[in-house]
Every structure is written in C-alpha cells, then in structure tokens.
Write a structure and sequence with these properties.
10 strands, binds zinc ion, 30% helix, globular, 14% strand, alpha/beta
Length: 312
C-alpha cells in the first residue's frame, strides 16, 4: 500500500522580493498595495502566510486517506482556499461567476493538470481539480528520469508515481468535476450546445497552456480537443491593459502587486494558487476580466487575440 507521507519536503521557497522598479509608464490604476514604502510592511501579515504548510498532494487529488491523522493534518495543508483581502471597494460586476485558474506543468508531455475554481463574488477558491498526468508516449525509464528531475526537487516524486494517470483519463475525470451541481443548481459544463462553459472562463498566465500545450497533448493522446478549451483569459494581458504596466510572468506580477509567492515555483498546484492570488488582487483593484483569446470555430488552430495591447 502506498504510504501517504510525502518524502520530507525541502524547506518552503519564499520568493524574495527584489527592490521595486518604477516603470516609465505610470499605471492608470495604481495597484492598491503599492502605496507603502517599505517592502516588508507591504507583505500582508495574514494567517495563510504565517502558517504556510505544503499542500497534501493526495488531498488535492481527492485521495487523502489520512484526514483523521492529526500528525499528517498538522504537517500538510488540506485546503485550497486563499486568504481573503479586505480592500474590496473597487470591485465591479464581472461577466463570469467563476474563473478556472489553470497552470499546466510539463514541457514534453503534460505532467500536472491543476485547476482552481475561483468564485468571483466571494473572491476566493471554492474547489480544486488536480491530477498528476502520466505521459503516454514516453518510456518508463525516461518517465522516471523526468519525474525525478522535476518533482524530486520538491520531494513529491513519490506522490506523482502513486497517483499519475494518463491525460485521457484526467480529462474524463475533469469533465465529471465540471458537471457537478454547484450551489444547488448550476453546473459549469453540461456538454450541450457548442460545449462551452456556463458562466465560467479559464484563466491562465500566458497563452502557452491552452493555445499550445493542451492541443499538442490531445494529439499525442489521440483525442479531440475538448470544446471548452476554445477561449480563455490570459492574466498577463489583463494586467497590462488594466495597470498599463508590462509584467512578463507570474512572479513579476506578484512582485509589483506586493503579493508574497507561496510554495514551490513550478509545482503546478502552488503556481495556480499564486495566480489565483494575482487574480484576486486584479479583481479587488477593479479590473474587468474578459476573454483575451479565442479559437476559430471552423479552424481551431487559428487563435484570435482580442486585446490589441498584449504581451507577445
Ligand atoms: Zn492528506
């Protein structure tokens, strides 16, 4: 039987802030947390930050069987929620009720598929879908090397091997998760009509995940591209158009917004939580989250970018 304890993880990586560089372009809307002078004072002293624990990566996949073991519960985090922020006076109505924050890992084939369900009204993460993904076209030897190199560095290669399933199965389980009844009625997806999501949109950091990687993996796994991957919101483009500042990556957005990045960078579930923190700040500052990229319905390979001003 697989042990549920992750190998002793390396100490948590708390990203250090470099000094704040002032752009020549002044933001139209100043990020709310940019107003103090001291970097240290700007890091929110919240319960989440001060009591940070690594995620139980069995729990995130619905597979933790140690929920009544207090040692295990004390050692690992069993919630995907993020701290609420109190400054909400700039909030505006959104086109979407939910955002699906997605941040894939794996350059050759997808290795991790984490999705956080962010509720626009309550401004927090209300559900998670997380799976480790076993490559379909890679030798066992190559998989072992690949996983040791990538997840071994975080001390989570064991849980990867214990839980990873092939992409096709991940997508089947993801669709069951999307079909779940939420708040006594709504489903994020029913598969009816054109197969798009109901009141929800994917949010990614960049276009790579949905423009490039998912279609590539579908080809490798000999699957049709699911219809809900036809459009998405690239947070970098929202950030650029809202603050009128270029931030080329998740860490630079976090640095500029004075949000402390938590967890291990390039562990997909931790990166997704950090992207959800950026999303939360954008919403709190008053940004409107709109679709930034769409595939053509007759030629899915052609992606149209809807914002003129965007990160290329
Ligand atoms: Zn657990």
């Amino acid at each position: 039987m697989a042990t549920l304890l992750r190998r002793a993880p390396p100490p948590p990586v708390f990203f250090q802030f470099s000094s704040f560089s002032t752009s020549i372009i002044q933001p139209k809307f100043k990020p709310s947390s940019m107003q103090c002078n001291s970097v240290v004072d700007e890091i929110p002293r919240t319960g989440e930050n001060s009591s940070w624990k690594p995620m139980c990566l069995y729990y995130t996949q619905g597979k933790c069987s140690k929920m009544d073991d207090s040692l295990h519960i004390n050692k690992f985090c069993h919630s995907c929620s993020i701290d609420r922020i109190s400054e909400l006076k700039n909030l505006r109505p959104q086109e979407f009720d939910y955002f699906l924050v997605l941040d894939l890992e794996g350059k050759v084939e997808i290795l991790e598929f984490p999705v956080l369900l962010f509720h626009a009204k309550t401004m927090t993460v209300v559900d998670v879908f997380h799976r480790f993904v076993r490559p379909t076209k890679m030798s066992e030897k190559r998989i072992n090397e690949y996983i040791e190199g990538k997840y071994g560095a975080f001390g989570v290669d064991r849980v990867w091997h214990d839980t990873a399933i092939e992409f096709q199965e991940v997508i089947e389980q993801f669709e069951s998760w999307l079909r779940k009844e939420r708040n006594g009625g709504g489903r994020l997806w029913t598969g009816e009509g054109d197969g798009s999501l109901n009141g929800a949109a994917f949010v990614t950091c960049g276009n790579w995940d949905l423009k490039t990687k998912v279609p590539q993996q579908c080809e490798v796994s000999r699957m049709k591209l699911p219809p809900y991957f036809m459009e998405w919101i690239n947070l970098k483009d929202i950030y650029l158009n809202f603050y009128n500042r270029r931030a080329p990556g998740m860490l630079s957005m976090m640095r500029e917004l004075r949000i402390r990045a938590l967890g291990s960078h390039h562990l997909g579930i931790d990166d997704s939580k950090n992207i959800a923190r950026v999303l939360q700040h954008l919403l709190a500052d008053g940004a409107l989250l709109q679709i930034t990229a769409k595939r053509g319905s007759s030629s899915p390979d052609a992606v149209r970018f809807l914002f003129q001003n965007r990160i290329k």
